[in-house]
Amino acid sequence: MTETFSLIPVASRTPLFNWILFPIILLIIGAVVLLASTLLSIPQIKFIVSPQELKITYPFYGRTIPLQELKLTEARLVNIQKEPDLKPIWRTNGVGLPGFGGGWFKLKNKERALLFLSDTKQAVYLPTTRGYVLLMSPENPKRFLERLKQNNHH
After folding, report:
1. Type and span of the H or E element at 56
2. Of 121, 111, 109, 115, which is closest to residue 134 (Cα–Cα)?
3. Count of CA atoms in the C-beta half-sphere (13 A) of 36
4. What are phi and psi of 68, to 5 degrees?
């Protein structure tokens, strides 16, 4: 006669669950929440140019920079694909997703950069007096740069 015996069910309070599986599950949930919040916040990024400042809205990396701290004479439109020295090569504290880079990166030319980059063919390179450059993809980058320079003269 054949008889089958099942494994006694694993109790949820075993050391295996408490010390190994539970932290792994929490880590996975945290990563999913972080990824979802990042993906949902990308469309909300705004570049607000006023006569006094540039305000960038983005969780964790957004900031307000007075116009006098922007090196507008060095600011320019760039195509990163044609200027490989401006390519972000090392993410130091940021988000790198296909089609989007946000946060702190090192560029190939060794500059420290704060990225808000979704289009490498139409970007704005904007040095600051704070020891880093901004690489960003505002809608209508030419108009964005013109507005910054206009406001700086007022």
Report:
1. strand 53-57
2. 115
3. 6
4. -70, -10
Q: Among positive and negative, which fits the CA dihedral 100, 104, 106, 111?
A: positive
Q: Summarize pLDDT for 30-73 with one digit per residue, the tens.
A: 888 877 776 667 778 899 999 999 999 987 888 999 999 999 99
Rg (CA), the chain: 23
Residue 139's domain comprises 67-153
Q: State how far the Cα of 94 lies from the Cα of 96, in Å rounded to an integer.
A: 7
The tally of domains found in the chain comes to 1
CA distance linking residue 66 with residue 133, whole number of Å: 14
In this prediction the pTM is 0.77
